[in-house]
Amino acid sequence: MTNRIERYSPGGNLDHTAKLYRAMAAVRHPQVVAHTDRVALLAEKIAITLGKDSKAAFFAGLLHDFGKIVLPDTLFDGHDISGDEYAEIKTHAISGFDILGEFHMFTAMCAGLHHALYHRGYGLTIDDFPKGITLPLIKKVLETATIVSICDFIDAYTHRKTKLKHSPASKGKSEGKTLRELLLAQYPGDAQLIDLALEANQEFAEVA
Ligand SMILES: [Fe+2]
Ligand SMILES: [Fe+2]
Question: Residue 33: nearest ligand to its CA?
């Protein structure tokens, strides 16, 4: 992963931030690093296929859960979490944006938006967008954050054991549905991207 980070030679020391994030998160949040590495590679692969900016997608994927490193590691040990614990976890989207925003605004916005782009999501709102940001840049942020968000959803579904305790409503809704059906319900306008991401994820799983 370090070679891949260096190969991109991004501007503004983003490579340094990415390496520092992985080193820091690995101390108490190794499962988060494994997840963000997979999301980075999946997002990169989809961006390449779509002819989008793969460097932007790779770093946005790698740093999308940056805000988790300031949360207790016990929240990510795979136990079924309470409503209060879930509320605490949800803060990672905004804190990731707040911390990264001072150094890497584009990647920070993707981090802030990665849970905001699906039905009943959370995180950054349009009011949090920096003043003076141009429309083309907003478009690129939204495109990149959508790729990362869908990759994140797929990776969490296929690898994460954590479930919300005492949640019959959400359990009932997802039971019996395929991952593709769940994704289409959450991202109704992104069927093509969903199919591409599922295919790429399958290819990675076969190689692993
Ligand atoms: Fe997240
Ligand atoms: Fe994530």
Answer: 2
